[in-house]
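2024-03-11 09:14:02 INFO worker-7 job=invfold-0412 stage=load source=structure_tokens
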């Protein structure tokens, strides 16, 4: 499923849920969503085995950090920044060292020849 479809579906769900909130509380719900987004932008992710990992993922989702807004750092993963032209060589170097390269879902990528 592509990102546009995901965002459209999630946007529709949030719009539907917001229609169920009484009008006098919609500001507080919106502020809560904004606060969750701010927390995930300011607080580094916990370790994968931490008791806070699930809470962090929930706050990330409520804060609408999805698609292009998704955090690059996730619990239990690191991000190695390299210039875009060097990305294929960096992936090969990491794979040659026996370290699995993870896809966007945190699963090991299949090696490309």
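2024-03-11 09:14:09 INFO worker-7 stage=emit residues=113
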């Amino acid at each position: 499923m592509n990102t546009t479809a995901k965002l459209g579906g999630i946007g529709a769900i949030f719009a539907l849920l917001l229609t169920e909130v009484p009008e006098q509380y919609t500001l507080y719900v919106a502020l809560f969503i904004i606060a969750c987004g701010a927390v995930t932008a300011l607080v580094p992710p916990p370790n994968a085995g931490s008791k806070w990992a699930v809470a962090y993922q929930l706050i990330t989702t409520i804060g609408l950090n999805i698609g292009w807004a998704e955090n690059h750092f996730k619990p239990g993963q690191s991000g190695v920044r390299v210039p875009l032209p060097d990305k294929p060589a960096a992936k090969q170097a990491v794979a040659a060292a026996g370290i699995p390269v993870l896809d966007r879902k945190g699963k090991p990528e299949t090696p490309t020849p």
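2024-03-11 09:14:09 INFO worker-7 stage=report msg="The two ends are 26 Å apart (CA to CA)."
2024-03-11 09:14:10 INFO worker-7 job finished
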